[in-house]
Amino acid sequence: MAPEGKIFDLKPELTLAMKLAATFAITYYGMMFLYEILTLVLYHYSIDSYYYGDQLAQESQSKDFVFLIVEFVLSSLLVFSLIQIFRKRVYGKAIFVTASLLLIAFQLWTSGIHPWLKYALEVLMVLIIAPIRVKKKIKIKKEEPSD
Question: Would you call 64 helix, strand, or coil by DSSP?
Answer without folding.
Answer: helix
